[in-house]
Amino acid sequence: MKALLLLIALISVPARADIAVITYNMAQLERMWIDFVPCTAERLPLQVAGLLTSREALIYTEPRFVLLLQEVFKTAAYDRLKEATKKLGFRMLPATADEAKENGLVTITNLPVLESRFVPFTQDNFAQKGILYTLLGVGRGYKLAVANVHTVFSNTSVLNETHIKQFQEIGKFVTDNRQKYVPFIVGGDFNAGPDMKYATEFYPMAQTIWHRGLMPVMTEQKMRWVDYVGFTWDNTNPLIQFPAPIIKMMNYWEQGSTKWELSDSKMDHIFITDGMEVKSSRLVMKDPVILDCPGRTDEKRYGTLSDHYGLMVQFKVNQ
């Protein structure tokens, strides 16, 4: 009898399975045939290989994964990702390149997709970004909710109220879509971080946008930030050191300097609901590769694949 009760108890206890969640800004943005981050076409096949198709691809780190991508604005980038995911039998959202080119958000996973939709921010600059929500199955009736987000950027001249409002809309979205006993992950490029600073600022605006803008929203939602070692925005990155001409002009217009004035920063983040167990967190998609991008590589032609590095967090979740 005791053995039977023990067997029933073991069956009723949720199993724990590993899952990797990766957020990565691909910087695949082109307008009027101008690359906002240099060498989009040259970087693209190497990015897809590093994410999905090579032997060392990130998807092979854990048997289950969710890949959150931002700035997949170029149709060529969407199509290349779609081709790879179709061959591998994965799911990719949204369904068409036309949807992605408006907001730049793409989510790829090998988990069953139970529901997915995009919710735009009510205010934005230059694009119609927002929240790409996906409800996933993780086995034995258990679910995982994931929101892929990308918010606007605040410079030193003003505390961007649009930025604050987008944080608040993320919080409201979590409130409206949270389900009992379903873990919730919010990940992406928040353009904010605890260590952000600017070369010239009249007050600590960069910290303000994090401590008074984003963190109160996430605290109210009982979501905790997953810390990590290093910076996703690293000023030693050649794509940041030597920006495209259009970025130089924008920087000069806003701050009187052609260079980015932002310090090294944790700009890309993953937030999780209480009770989720974090196994590890680390930067990914940061190692230099041989790249045909003159002026943005070293003498041996080694360069980086985006102006952002990726962040991978490995979890244990119910299945």
Reconstruct the topology from this structure:
Blueprint lengths: L1 H11 L3 E13 L1 E2 L2 E2 L4 H14 L11 E8 L2 H14 L2 E3 L3 H7 L2 E4 L3 E8 L9 E10 L2 E9 L10 H17 L6 E6 L15 H16 L2 E3 L12 H4 L3 H11 L12 E6 L3 E8 L4 E2 L11 E2 L6 E9 L1
Parallel strand pairs: 1-4, 9-10
Antiparallel strand pairs: 1-16, 2-3, 4-6, 5-6, 7-8, 8-9, 10-12, 11-12, 13-16, 14-15
Helix pairs in contact: 2-3, 5-6
What report would you give on this structure?
With 319 residues, the chain is α+β, with helices and mostly antiparallel strands. 29% of the residues lie in helices and 30% in strands. It contains eight helices and 16 strands. The chain has a six-stranded mixed beta sheet with strand order 5-6-4-1-16-13. Strands 7-8-9-10-12-11 form a six-stranded mixed beta sheet, with helices on one face. Strands 2-3 form a two-stranded antiparallel sheet. α2 runs parallel beside α3. The protein is globular. The two termini are 27 Å apart.
Total helical elements: 8
Termini separation comes to 27 Å
Q: What fraction, in percent, of the residue positions are helical? A: 25-40%
**Major pleated sheet:** 6 strands, mixed
Judging from the principal axes of the Cα atoms, what is the shape?
globular
